[in-house]
Amino acid sequence: MKQKQGQFTSRLLGGSTRAEEAEQELYPGVGALVVSVGEMDGTCGGEDLFDSIVMADERFRGEGYQEGYEKGTRRGLQDGRRHGASHGAKLSTEISFYYGFAVTWKCLLHQNTDIKSRKRMKVLESLLGLIQNSPHDDPQSAKLQQDMDNLRAKFRQVCSMLSIPTDFKDYIKTAAGTSF
């Protein structure tokens, strides 16, 4: 290594061999290029220069992968939050609708004393009980999907007993045109 550095220094100071002078005549400026590249990365031999060129592709690929991974992770978290907020809003809208529906019908049927009305009141109270006991505060609950399926089934049962349409989306479309 010491000998290479000595040759490198002698070339910088103007000393050169006969082969280097001939090479300089055939390819002017090439020697200066090698010297300037060698100075930049602190290497003396052409082998280290080519290694850095060959390894540049691998280094850039690794840096690009890491940068892409970080950006993808951030984007995924943002998209996940947006998606979760959207689904959470839809779920809370549905649960709120069922609650308001049950309370309203319970108030309407409260004055009636016939057997059908009592059965309807009992089913409405069980719907309200399902709503109040469901873990809608915990979005990671394992029972959330099962509870929502039970709520929807109970809602369909109540609607059947009241002889009204059972599609929740129909109620949302009707309410969308309402202005306060």
TrEMBL record:
<dbReference type="InterPro" id="IPR052436">
    <property type="entry name" value="LTO1_adapter"/>
</dbReference>
<comment type="similarity">
    <text>Belongs to the LTO1 family.</text>
</comment>
<feature type="compositionally biased region" description="Polar residues">
    <location>
        <begin position="1"/>
        <end position="10"/>
    </location>
</feature>
<dbReference type="InterPro" id="IPR019191">
    <property type="entry name" value="Essential_protein_Yae1_N"/>
</dbReference>
<protein>
    <submittedName>
        <fullName>Oral cancer-overexpressed protein 1</fullName>
    </submittedName>
</protein>
<dbReference type="Pfam" id="PF09811">
    <property type="entry name" value="Yae1_N"/>
</dbReference>
<feature type="domain" description="Essential protein Yae1 N-terminal">
    <location>
        <begin position="64"/>
        <end position="102"/>
    </location>
</feature>
<feature type="region of interest" description="Disordered">
    <location>
        <begin position="1"/>
        <end position="20"/>
    </location>
</feature>
